[in-house]
User: What shape does this take?
Amino acid sequence: PRSCGLARRAAAAAAGVARRSAANRSAMMLDAKKFAEHAGEFTADGVSIERQLELANQVRDSIEIVHTAEYQGFLQHYFPVFQKLLSRPVTAAGDASAPAAIQPPLELPPGTAPAAAPAAAPADGAEDEAKDKEDDSADKEAQKERAATAAAAMKRARQESKLRKVLLEVLNRLPHNEFLRPYVQQLMALCLHVLEVDKEACALICLRIIFDLHKNFRPTLEDHVAPFLKFVCSLYEQAPNAAADLAKAVEKERTDLEAAAQAAAAAKGAAGTSGGASAAAGAAEGASAGNDGSGSGQQADKAKAEGAEAGAQAGGADAAAATGGAGTAATGGG
Assistant: This one.
């Protein structure tokens, strides 16, 4: 009976997990009636890159909908949006750090002479020091602002790269049937564009899409063969430069590692030398203290001997005085 009860509880728990999983899948599935609204959020005014990435993940998690009768509506609403997002320039981390435009000088009205610069008042040392502190504070604030701007630009670039990768993963999982045929030319041109401008992870997904398109729609893609082969030839032509750049990068990394190892060894040697000097100084201090102690012992022994001699002399004088007194008493008695 106990084993039967455990089996029933386990079966009930498994059924609960299955129901919750089904509920989660149904909640994650896109609603075909809201394709237009959901796709429009990608290009809404003021939409953030984080929100676009969230929307793209929702589409990827609901990709099974393309195997239903809603595939045609899916392509109609989402493909133009994906094409627009993947066609825009790739965000670089250094774009936000572009120098500001130089402002033109103010023009004075005709007949107006420029105001004379005020005479500089003599500044003492305290004023100079205060001015230096203000300049240092301003420089630090400017550095912080530049660092924050660069960090924000790098974060956006990473989010942008993730978004492009998710969009390409969705396109890679589209069924190649008659519903996709009207979009084949645009999809091929889009993949060739991304292949030339994007990173390696996105380029590899584009290669898989290109190969699948040629397998299923080869007769209609003859015009795209020459651009693809031209791109491949350019890769082979740039291979020596790429190998040289790779060798330089490896050599630079090796040099940096060697320099770091030498710096660590030098720091370790300096620490050892400092410890040896401290030990030698301690030994010298100990020897000096020992010498002082031995000298003090010798002085104590000498003082003790002098005291004993003085005592002996005092004892002899007392004995002589006693003998003299005894003789005087004997004479008086006689």
Observations:
- The chain is about 75% helix and 0% strand.
- Confidence is low (pLDDT under 50) at residues 21-27, 94-109, 317-334.
